[in-house]
Amino acid sequence: MTVQSIAVFMGAQFGNDPQYTVIAEKLGQIIAEKKLKLVYGGGRDGLMGATALSTMAHGGEVIGITPNNLAEDAISPEQVTRLIEVDNMSERKDLMMRYADAFVVLPGGFGTLEELAQVLSWAKIGLHDKPLVLLNINGFYDSLWAWLKETVTNGFVAEHELQHVQIFDNIDDTLAYMNQFNLLIHETNDY
């Protein structure tokens, strides 16, 4: 499989650690430099907006997908390559999953958690075989990762099923992992 697009799930807020924004913007830049498409939830604010605007500022392509009931929070159609309005959140997630060849999860809230859970559970039941990475900025996903391991320890998830998600602390390790899937992402400098 060749990666041509990466869905990034992330918060519509900036969070309280400036590194979240720094890494979100750097990820957008790298997506553009690698000639990949960014697929995201279409928001204008927070990490969502920062990643999309950074991708566009560096000459990249951005597909935003937003439900009609959140259209007032959507990025302006002129600021991205394509903004798709859908009827509901389920359709949004479905399109994001179809349009993406790989998934990266930045810090976020309940919506980010929901998107992560769906991609992970769909991989478990064989609906896709695409790489999924938690980008663990300053330990944001440490507790979630510990919980995922507890699901194995307590017999709710088979150990081999954790292969459907990986966790890395930086963009370089994320890209190196994706390279194991013979994807068209090349090594980058340390970020």
Automatic annotation (TrEMBL):
Q: Which UniProt keywords apply?
A: Cytokinin biosynthesis, Hydrolase
Q: Can you supply a Gene Ontology BP term from the record? A: cytokinin biosynthetic process
Asked if the record carries the keyword Hydrolase, the reply is: yes
The record's annotation in Pfam families points to:
Lysine_decarbox
Q: Which domain of life is it from?
A: Bacteria
GO terms under cellular component: cytosol
Q: What is its EC number?
A: 3.2.2.n1
Query: What Gene3D superfamilies would the database entry show?
Result: 3.40.50.450
Where, if anywhere, are coiled coils annotated?
none
Q: Which GO terms describe its molecular function?
A: hydrolase activity, hydrolyzing N-glycosyl compounds
Record-stated family: Belongs to the LOG family.
Q: What is this protein called?
A: Cytokinin riboside 5'-monophosphate phosphoribohydrolase
The scientific name of the source species is: Leuconostoc gelidum subsp. gelidum
